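Researcher: We're reviewing a set of sequences before deciding which ones to prioritize for further study. For each one, I'd like a predicted 3D structure that I can look through quickly. This is GntR family transcriptional regulator. If possible, include the structure in token form so it fits the rest of the review sheet.
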Amino acid sequence: MMTPDSWTDVPTLPAAIADWIARGIVAERWPDGARLREAEIAAELNVSRGPVREALRVLNERGLVRLAPRVGAVVNGMSRSTITEVYELRAHIEALICRTAVPRLSEADKDRLRALLDQIIALRNGDRIDEMLTTCWEFRETLYRPSTNRTALDLVRSLRTRLHSIPQVLRNDPAHITLAMTFYVRVTQAAIDGDTSAVERLVSEFMIKTGEQVVTAFRPGAADLAPAASGAPVWS
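Model: Here's the predicted structure for GntR family transcriptional regulator, in token form for your review sheet.
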């Protein structure tokens, strides 16, 4: 049974239901192509169909569900194995980008990385996590921009879109925030020093570990983390 009082840490009941369904999709309770029936979900959660309908619209915006004419909500596959594969692929590609980007970083680029790191630290200390994580991606875009491999950059952006809001489950996870802070401090120094191999290694390790944390967060029985509201920034 589910009641609104069970979800006091989330902004709305539809957002809570969307998060619950998303966990089921990632855990492969509903495989790719399966129909999500409003009435059945509403009955299981002991809620009316209205919040379930809104939750399915949210999941459609996130890319986890597609709303098919005369069929209704249908699952778009995003299993834990898919998440792992996407992060492993991103680890390889983003490290490759760094191989050509770091040697081409200008002094202006390095100054920008320092400034963005200062912003990340200030936002973390101010407990403004959404803004911090958005700034983290701006940092990585700045780091990657000098790369001559435009195809790889486009592919990374495409893979981020594939995951869409899934990584937002980590926004309230202290272990991930600690991981991110450590990564951005270390990668800033390595980039400023021109240590290409260190930057490659740090980026690859960070992506792999982030993928592991996302998968862990969606395992059955994992501690609930407040889901992001629709429209929150995609940062990972």
